[in-house]
Amino acid sequence: MKLTCAQMDVLISFYIDNDLSKILKTKVEEHLESCPACRAKYEIIKSMLTDLKTSIGKDESLPEEVIYSSVSNVPISSQYRVFQNKLSAYIDNELSNEDNIKIKKFTINNKKARKELEDTYNIRKLMNDSFRKTKADAKHDFSKNVLKQLELEDEAVLGIHPVIKILIGFTVSVLVFTTIVLFSIGV
Question: What is the pLDDT of residues 52-80, one digit of tens each?
Fold first, then answer.
């Protein structure tokens, strides 16, 4: 049985994580060799993950005062780095009152921070709208059906439940989409 491109969309993240049976791994590799579109998707995702791991390593090795933006290679202040690290928690109302006030003050006084906050809210709204539309349109879970077709429930390499694997794949897809959107709007 040959894999389709739609099945590959689901399986690429499992392949990158080396979380497929030997037989399925071989089928994925065969498809990647014969399909330039899926190979390009695979290369983009793998490259983005490598870049992310590399940038995390660079940030940890630099002194607190001098951290460089991974996009523009311009030094950013430690205060701005704190803002970036807490931005997601701020948007999700997960910060203490003191931290909320600090983020608000910094955002008010920093044009770049205001722009980043606005962009993050816009991305969140787009993702929520897209999720609602997809949820309304989809009568069944496509990823689950793909995994059932391939009978992967019994072939879990690490004993991880297939639903958890699907959630991991979805999360990777959302991160890739978010990164693409962020790069396209110039953040």
Answer: 667 665 544 434 444 444 444 444 567 77
Instruction: Decide if 162 is inside a domain.
Output: yes
The pLDDT, as a whole number, for residue 2 is 84
**Residue 71 domain-assigned (yes or no):** no
pLDDT-derived band at 35, boundaries 50, 70, 90 = very high
Whether residue 66 is contained in a domain is answered as: no
Query: Could you tell me if residue 84 is inside a domain?
Result: yes
The count of domains in the chain is 2
- HEC profile of the chain: CCCCHHHHHHHHHHHHCCCCCHHHHHHHHHHHHHCHHHHHHHHHHHHHHHHHHHHHHHHHHCCCCCEECCCCCCEECHHHHHHHHHHHHHHCCCCCHHHHHHHHHHHHHCHHHHHHHHHHHHHHHHHHHHHHHHHHHCCCCHHHHHHHHCCCHHHCCCCCCHHHHHHHHHHHHHHHHHHHHHHHCCC
